């Protein structure tokens, strides 16, 4: 039974199922983007903190210490970023493959039917109908 939100939006049940499927596939990409945007924010904040510390002190020794601390932080964050990138490198490709293997809508004599098929089986079905 369609939900009130689908009825208000004018979305059919089949369209809502398809959108839910696509949203489930796109969510990991959103998580990847969110992670990298957070990392950009962290790096920006660290750079501004280094700039503030560098300009607030007159001592060369304190400036060198601030630079060393910043370099250690950058190295640690870079190692974490590399690990994250390696762990998630396959995710976008898997998502794209899942989107191509999603449900295919086909019309037959009895009306609109929806069945799960891969691209190859859809091509075989189309060839058999000819």
TrEMBL record:
Domain of life (superkingdom): Bacteria
Protein name: Uncharacterized protein
UniProt organism field: Bradyrhizobium elkanii
């Amino acid at each position: 039974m369609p939900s009130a939100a689908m009825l208000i939006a004018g979305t059919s049940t089949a369209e809502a199922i398809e959108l839910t499927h696509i949203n489930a596939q796109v969510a990991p990409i959103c998580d990847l983007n969110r992670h990298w945007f957070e990392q950009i924010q962290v790096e920006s904040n660290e750079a501004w903190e280094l700039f503030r510390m560098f300009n607030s002190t007159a001592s060369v020794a304190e400036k060198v210490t601030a630079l060393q601390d910043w370099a250690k932080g950058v190295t640690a964050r870079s190692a974490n970023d590399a690990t994250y990138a390696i762990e998630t490198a396959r995710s976008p490709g898997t998502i794209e493959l899942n989107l191509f293997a999603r449900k295919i809508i086909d019309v037959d004599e009895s009306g609109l039917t929806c069945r799960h098929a891969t691209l190859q089986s859809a091509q075989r079905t189309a060839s058999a109908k000819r």
